[in-house]
Amino acid sequence: MVLVVFLLAYLIRRRLDAVNRGVSEPVWRAWFQWGRVSRPGREHGIGRGLLLILVPAVAAGALEYLMRRAGLSLAVYPLEVLVLLLLMGTPGWRPALDAYAEAWARGDMQAAWHHVRDRLPPGERGAAVSPEAMHLSLCKAMLVTVFQRFFLVAFWFVVAGLPAAILARGLVALAEHWPQAAARPRFARLAEYAAWLPARLVSLTFGIAGDLAGWLKVARRALVSGRARLAEVLMVSANGALTGYALDPDRFSRLHPDEWPRFGGNSLSAIRDLLNRTMLVWLCLLALLVIAGQI
């Protein structure tokens, strides 16, 4: 039932994203308001934040256990679907990316930046950056966001169940929304640890779902480096798996100057297609594990 539960949640979540519904970020922010007050000098503490994601994870695990003990095993599956719907999703991204691509095609880079500035990493939101740097920053943010909202949740749900998925996604939420900004880098490091293995699995799957020959040229750098950050692993492996210089705007502009107005939209479409194919590969592998009786 793991495959059925995740597939159902994934399909519903994609539909909700298409209509910009089911935003879970306000829920995380409201829950983390319990940590808005901190003693002077203790702003770096992460104990309270970890407790706040441990509580729902333990509660979900306990509820599942009690429901199964009470003979309500079938009722567990709708519960898992509902929680996965809350954990996954990137609502709001598609309209922003569509508007960005249209502005890029018009050559209005300032408008393109305004459409996606809130999606960019805080340190990379400068309005004066070049179009190439802006686009790479957006692509990196897109890859990391989709990974954290879908692949990270999927990996830990399959491997260790719903509580692990809540903890992994909760670490990401803490790094983004914890009221005490001084503690966010520590939560981000913990989220990096949780993403280490699934990120390399996604990198491997990029090669299967994309250009295998190109991916093999960068596979060692993406997979073997133990110190490579999540964003670097995803960007390097995606760049190798994509054709047409979709993640190399400098080279594209030199080789195809006449097609430059279409580069922004085509590049984003290529990344979305790669991510969709990668998830399809994951679902196929999960189905094979189910058939083999490993899950």
Automatic annotation (TrEMBL):
GO biological process, any: response to antibiotic
Source superkingdom: Bacteria
Keyword line: Kinase, Membrane, Transferase, Transmembrane, Transmembrane helix
GO molecular function: kinase activity
A Gene Ontology term for the protein's cellular component: plasma membrane
Record has Transferase as a keyword: yes
Transmembrane segments annotated in the record for this chain: 48-67, 74-93, 150-172, 193-216, 274-293
InterPro entries: Beta-lactamase_Reg
Protein name: Histidine kinase
